[in-house]
Design brief:
Elements: H1 24-36, H2 38-46, E1 60-63, E2 72-75, E3 80-81, H3 83-94, E4 101-106, E5 113-117, H4 118-134, E6 142-146, H5 151-162, E7 166-169, H6 176-186, E8 190-194, E9 197-199, E10 202-204, H7 206-219, E11 226-230, H8 235-241, E12 254-255, E13 261-262, E14 279-281, H9 282-286, E15 298-299, E16 303-309, E17 317-322, H10 323-337, E18 345-348, H11 355-367, E19 371-375, H12 386-394, E20 398-401, H13 403-411, H14 415-418, E21 427-431, H15 437-447, E22 454-457, E23 491-494, E24 500-501, E25 505-511, E26 521-522, H16 526-533, E27 541-549, E28 555-560, E29 564-567, E30 570-573, H17 574-582, E31 587-597, E32 601-610, H18 618-631, E33 640-643, H19 657-664, H20 681-687
Parallel strand pairs: 4-19, 6-7, 6-8, 7-16, 8-11, 11-14, 18-19, 18-20, 20-21, 21-22, 32-33
Antiparallel strand pairs: 1-2, 3-15, 4-5, 9-10, 12-13, 16-17, 17-26, 23-24, 23-25, 25-27, 27-28, 29-30, 31-32
Helix pairs in contact: 1-2, 3-4, 4-5, 6-7, 10-11, 13-15
The structure holds 5'-O-[(S)-ethoxy(hydroxy)phosphoryl]adenosine.
Length: about 700
């Protein structure tokens, strides 16, 4: 670590004079209370929310120790509430925020935007909740949502929450196979999707992908019979027909079928495949639906949503969150970590299809009555200054993004950033993967002009909200460190034998006691939940990340220590990519490792062995790449595919990925290779490495 990077950035007096937590000692005081007396700490916070009936049992009840019985976590069981009521009706009726903007929506095209107030959002949500009920959706049913970043996505998820149905949102970049897998695992009864959308200049024909998924579901006997489709790309037609009042005329860049820009004056609209009887247009079912809808009063421990995340077995895991604890944790972490103030305009660039979007686009900001920006597009379209032009357009004060976006913009230099004012910015956030000190410093110096603290937030789909993070007014910052635990979070670092390490140390990052927003189970597979997170070190929740604690007590995440990869902040397991490759008839064996990448953080480096009769050609390589892309989605596209005449294995037949990782990096310092069944394979693999110079 260079001297520059070891620097500490102390909170400056001009940083947030009205900060919720203005000093480190105050953080420490609040923190101590939160972990020593969770009941008092979270109980006080719970009083700010609406509960139909108070809790009846213990405030917190749990078992983290698999050796003592079933693992379970319950916060405020017996209390009844509704999260949708709390994030909308409470703001409109009690806090009188009905006319406040809930979201500014910024479309892919810069001139395409809308806004929606809390009251308008509440009405739309009630209407869609009534639509869902009229389609027979009831409490505990699962609704799959596969949509671009549009306001209807927020409406759909909150409508589910309002009637006690579980939303299970699938990122719109996932493939038909991935969507089908998740619909079947969740036993979903209805799908909400959209016609099509543009990401930058690329057309995504979403309904067509959804249709392929539904066909696959049908072939596998899945009972899903209903699909509601938002006319998003086609909404000018609605505006013309007068069916949709909120449609600014879209000035068009035009695109042909491949998504290339064309000269024509008409924007290309794909033909939307349609299955009568199953498919319904959103605007048709919404028209005439009542804007009143009594919420379903749910137990604090009732299920709220399922969100799939990669698992090391290759099959995605359905992470399940419940109502009460998640609500308190998302709301509280949003308030403190971004030091939320009522006049803020907050913008989180994450897609709602990931947990960051669930907690910090929808639930956290709305629970606080915040005004946020939702952005449909990408940081580089129509040019690499787009983010900053949005910041200026809406006078964004708090901005939350991923290191991969920062590195991408860094590559284009300072000029596109400096061209925009950005003077509204007050706090910058980072999430999804370790942020390298170089990117941190660029974010701090260039984007924030040394005026804005950076909150590097470490957390997971499973944790529901921030676990390790600085607080803007309180924490001296070290570039690359996620600093200290958030309220209610008790981290520990364990060695391989499960002993807690004190002081300066490096090892497995675990958490010792439950926090309100933690997952409760893997949907439909509690034994897998226990085995994945609680078995290795009984009594602890195991994150799967490695971590260092320095002499000042700062935590530094060192990355995954299981078979997971983090591509542009998105987790993937090596085995899901390996099984996608194995489905190709030419592949007899495959092994996938991570490789450092200057923009994505990590990328995929794949080794494949072929069946007799196949030859490793450029066209086969392209086919394999496509295979993975089709099977999982574009984020999983391999950067490198290397032919492997054989793979390094132990005598018991286990592939040694440790060695493959070194081969991919051209690192000849292999350590002990004596356990390999056939060490000669290593030279052959080194000799036909892919060229990894970027
Ligand atoms: C990684 C995303 C370092 C980590 C919210 C974790 C991070 C995984 C950080 C969870 C960070 C997330 N610093 N690493 N600030 N944030 N990670 O479930 O490996 O998509 O386990 O949740 O991302 O990814 P997930």
């Amino acid at each position: 670590m260079g001297q520059e990077q070891a620097r500490i950035f102390h909170p400056r007096p001009e940083w947030l004079p009205a900060a919720h937590v203005p000093s480190l000692s105050q953080y420490e005081r609040l923190y101590q209370r939160s972990v020593e007396d969770p009941h008092a700490f979270w109980g006080d916070i719970a009083k700010e929310f609406y509960w139909k009936t108070p809790y009846t049992g213990p405030f917190l009840n749990y078992n983290f120790d698999v050796t003592k019985g079933k693992v379970f976590i319950e916060w405020m069981k017996g209390a009844t509430t509704n999260i949708c009521y709390n994030v909308l009706d409470r703001n409109v009726n009690e806090k009188k925020l009905g006319d406040k903007i809930a979201f500014y929506w910024e479309g892919n095209e810069p001139e395409d935007s809308m806004k929606i107030t809390y009251k308008e959002l509440l009405h739309k949500v009630c209407q869609f909740a009534n639509v869902l009920r009229s389609q027979g959706v009831k409490k505990e049913d699962r609704v799959s949502i596969y949509m671009p970043m549009i306001l209807e996505l927020v409406v759909a998820m909150l409508a589910c929450a309002r009637i006690g149905a579980l939303h299970t949102i699938v990122f719109a970049g996932f493939s038909a196979d991935s969507l089908c897998e998740r619909i079947i695992d969740g036993g979903c009864c209805l799908l909400v999707t959209a016609d099509a959308f543009y990401r930058g200049d690329k057309l995504i024909n979403l309904k067509q992908i959804a249709d392929e998924a539904l066909q696959k579901c049908k072939d596998r006997g899945c009972p899903l019979k209903k699909c509601i489709v938002v006319k998003h790309l086609g909404r000018e037609e609605l505006a013309v027909a007068g069916t949709c009042s909120k449609s600014p005329p879209l000035k068009r860049l035009c695109h042909d079928v491949q998504g290339k820009q064309t000269e024509s004056s008409q924007r290309f609209h794909p033909k939307i495949p349609w299955t009568p009887g199953r498919d319904m247009w959103w605007h048709e079912v919404m028209s005439g639906a009542s804007t009143d809808c009594e919420p379903e009063w749910c137990d604090s421990e009732d299920k709220l949503f399922i969100l799939y995340t990669s698992g090391s077995t290759g099959k995605p895991k359905g992470v399940l969150h419940t109502v009460g604890g998640y609500m308190l944790f998302a709301a509280t972490s949003f308030k403190y970590v971004f030091d939320y103030q009522p006049e803020d305009v907050y913008w989180c660039t994450a897609d709602i299809g990931w947990i960051t979007g669930h907690s910090y686009v929808t639930y956290g900001p709305l629970a606080n009555g915040a005004t946020s920006v939702i952005f449909e597009g990408v940081p580089t379209y129509p040019d690499v200054g787009r983010m900053w032009s949005i910041v200026d357009k809406y006078k964004v004060t708090k901005f939350y993004t991923a290191p991969t976006a920062i590195r991408l913009l860094m590559k284009h230099g300072e000029e596109p950033v400096r061209k925009h004012s950005r003077k509204s910015l007050k706090v910058l956030g980072s999430v999804g993967e370790p942020i390298n000190p170089e990117a941190w410093l660029w974010y701090y110096r260039v984007v924030g002009e040394e005026r804005c603290p950076i909150v590097d937030t470490f957390w997971q789909t499973e944790t529901g909200g921030h676990m390790l993070t600085p607080l803007p007014g309180a924490t001296p910052l070290k570039p690359g460190s996620a600093a200290f635990p958030f309220f209610g979070v008790v981290p520990a670092i364990l060695n391989e034998s499960g002993e807690e390490l004190e002081g300066e140390a490096e090892g497995y990052l675990v958490f010792k006691q439950p926090w309100p927003g933690m997952m409760r189970t893997l949907y439909g597979n509690h034994p897998h939940f226990e085995a994945t997170y609680f078995k290795k070190f009984p009594g602890y929740y195991v994150t799967g990340d490695g971590c260092k604690r320095d002499k000042d007590g700062y935590y530094w995440i060192t990355g995954r220590i299981d078979d997971m990869l983090n591509i542009s902040g998105h987790l993937l397991s090596t085995s899901e990519v390996e099984s996608a490759l194995l489905e190709h008839p030419a592949v007899s064996e495959s092994a996938v490792v991570s490789h450092p990448h200057s923009l994505k953080g990590e990328c995929l480096y794949c080794f494949v062995s072929l069946r007799v009769g196949y030859e490793f050609t450029k066209s086969l390589e392209d086919e394999l790449r496509k295979q993975v892309r089709d099977k999982i989605g574009p984020i999983a596209t391999p950067d490198y595919i290397q032919y492997a005449p054989g793979l390094p294995k132990t005598r018991s037949g286990k592939i040694t990925r440790r060695i493959l990782r070194k081969i991919a990096r051209d690192d000849h310092d292999l350590g002990d290779t004596s356990t390999l069944a056939d060490p000669s394979i290593i030279d052959q693999l080194f000799s036909n490495r892919c060229n990894t110079k970027q």
